[in-house]
Design brief:
It is built from 16 helices and twelve strands. With 383 residues, the chain is α/β, with parallel strands linked by helices. The chain folds into three domains: 34 residues, no CATH class; 143 residues, Glycogen Phosphorylase B (Rossmann fold); 191 residues, Rossmann fold (3-Layer(aba) Sandwich). A hairpin with a 5-residue loop joins strand 5 and strand 6.
Length: 383
Amino acid sequence: MILKTDCMYFPGDHPCIYNKQAGIKCDNCNYYKTASFRILIIKLDAVGDVLRTTSILPAVKRKYPDSHITWLTKRESAQLFLNNPFVDNLLFLQDDSLTARLITETFDLMIHPDASPVSSSLAAIVKAKQKSGFTLNSSGKVEVLNSEAEEWFEMGAFDEYKKKNKKTYQQIIHEIAGLEYRKDEIILNLTEEEKKYARLFYEKNNLDKYRILIGINTGSGSRWPLKQWPVEKYMEFIEAIKADKNVGILLFGGPDEEEKNRKIKLKYPEVIDSGSHNSLREFFALLNLSDAVITGDTMALHAAVALKKNVICLFGPTSSAEIEDYGRIRKVVPEMECLVCYKNSCDFIPNCMDVITTGMVMNELKLIYPDLMVQGSRFKLQG
């Protein structure tokens, strides 16, 4: 048999990429490579958290350069890994074969930085020589696998610790995994087709008439309504900036923001609505048109950071300290004692997001505006 089943590119039930693209077979293949060190990373949700956790991958590869990396997540995060050169294989929580795979395969290292009982139960059955992060014990309780995970575990249990924390999420998960932290970027690489999709949108909407494109992401997902800045505040911001003919405004959001964005568009027809039913990758491609993005602490924040955009992020119920700024994020944080509560609703009037004024956001924009003007539209310069 000429088939080399130990090759890291062999998928098992269909041709490998090199056979598919060039007809190469195992007896005459220069790409043959075995996985000398097998790693499993478990991070199921949410999509934004999965995306920002990809920042761990460069450090993994520095420490284990010949490793084969499998990532276990939920299927809704699958598109995040398109065009990601670090991840060799994906497993999904929804797969019927998942349990059988986990009890059959062996790994050299498992990294599981999430104290979720669901993902911890999966970590418990994984066969790995070394494990870091969290697992589930025989009593059905989450417990730490290494001392480096204790700090993050207690932050999840005690609000006081969470509020006092000054470490970024990226630093914390690197410490849990025993990796050197060098502020590596979140991994998000657009394909040429996606760039073409954005280019067509750019041309269709005559965006070349603007020197600067500012993206406004109005949503935060249905789970965290308190992360959202009120729609009236967004309209105040647009009112404050609309006279500047150098600036074009792009609206972003998902199905939950469709009505909100329609309301904004109705009052300000000059605003360009990117649509509320884009696929995840289409959303990323269109977000990449922006030179600066205004958003709450949500998936759009992590995507904008990964795309290396200037970001003005509005914080209330979540920790601003946990967000790695990469030198590109301006953080707008109101002065309130009850911040970092991680509640999805609030009885205070005004609440923390209400307290953020248009002036606070405008002040941050003014600080980056000169650089934006000098740079001009990044997308225009790329095209």
